[in-house]
User: What shape does this take?
Amino acid sequence: MRVTGIAFRLSCLLAAFSVFAAALASHYTFLSGRELLRQQAQHNLRDTTGVLGHRLQSALQTVTRDTVMLAAQSGTAGLFDEQGAPLPRAAPTRLWLAHAFEAMIASHPEYLKIQLIQARQHGQELVRVQRLAAGVQQAPEAELQEKGHFPYVFEALQLPLGQVYMSELAVNRDEGLAPDSPTYTMSAPVESGGHLVGVLVVQVAARPFLRALTSDLPAGFQVYMANRWGDWLVHPDARLVFGFDRGQRFLIQDSLPQAAELITGQQPELVLQTADGDGEPIVAAFRRLPLGREVDQRFLLLGLSQPLKDIDGDVILLGHRAVQVLLMLCVAACLLAVLVSRRVTGPLKLLAQATRRLGRGQQMGELPSERSDEIGELARAFGQMEEQVTRQLSQLRSSHHALDHLAHHDALTGLPNRRMVEARLADALRRTDEAGGICAVLFVDLDHFKTINDRLGHEGGDVVLRAVARRLASGVRDGDLVGRLGGDEFIVICEGIDHEDDAARIAQKLQALFEQPLAYSGLPVGVQASIGISLYPRDGTDVRSLLTRADAGMYRAKNQGRNTFSFS
Assistant: This one.
């Protein structure tokens, strides 16, 4: 196809238009997709925060049910008489309750302590089971303390039966428990004989509790939590957590002014873009979660954040996809250009290729001969020309092979002639140099052949020469060479022999071939030969010297009485 042809220009125009349209569409798709992805990420983050809030409330309800269940069981009330005073002989019941509390703590890793506190005697503990470093243990009676001054006691005593008091999250200060560990407390009133006689208290470690809730959050998400005054209870920066316990106040509304609407109740949830403590952009969602009784108007602020780069990672992926689509459209445009080019210039290109193949002596291949237009006529003319050229080339090749055979073979016997013998002997000498060993040259001359030729005539002499050639060729090994130098002179080249005796045995084998007379017109014709032998590298290092020494050996054999062999 010509570079400046109309098919090329049309293809470029189509490709350019397609690429331009694809680029505009990809750019618009990328911008729209980026905005949709960010909105979807914010929506998913808000929904995830809501789900986490429901899970938190469900987990708190589980603790509430456990607290109410322990407070309502008959064994708990069985420690008190009808007036609400502790029974003096209730040691078995206390032991049974302690085992029940131990089983509850063992089945809930986040539970730190379960207490039964009486309403009288300033809230004296009756049973206390707690999780210590050594394991879950019941406190000895001597260590039981008065707890009536704690809100989880006197507040719970004001509640109707079946309701639960929940404390604020605070840093644990109880002796024997893990220090500086955030906890919260659930307590429920205990009734006996229609009287409130005590309080059942369950203390929960906040960190394991929250860790169980957030364990399946995707990587990169951070959890936030603040109390109803805005103090940070959970934050990625541990320095901001429970600052009020250290005499400092780190408030959510100071770092996120928009959160003030959550604290005042103006908004139930909030989604915003901000930055974390390291200045990295994030997307955060916060939700107001009611806690406890509605009359108390207590709540928590629960939040989740995700790095903006994680969201933009999907945007980058979208950009990659847009680029991939653009590249595919470009490839499609180029393929369309190629198809147009082939449709327009394909037949002419076939003819041009056929002409080049014909010029190299190859077959032209398939041509569009079935077409009914000018291209079809041209293709049929090319086909006829190919037939004529092929026929002429075949004749030339046959003539060339015949001439080549005549140039390297004897016309009478078909054996290699002197030229080919010398070339093959040179190759044999090179192989002998590489592989080692000996190369033998045997010069074979028929004895009294002139007499045979005079008696039988030239035609009979030719028959004898051809028969001699066949016998010599049948008497050598595969790979040995038998050639005719001219007249009644033959040459045998044997490679890869190890000793001089091997050459002598070959000569004896060749002479044995002539022990049986030849037949001509039904009459026996006796033939004998004298053989001269030269060995490489002993007798010469080149073709000429080896042939000369073998010829000299042949004459020495004739002087010794003929029908024998002799080394040079």
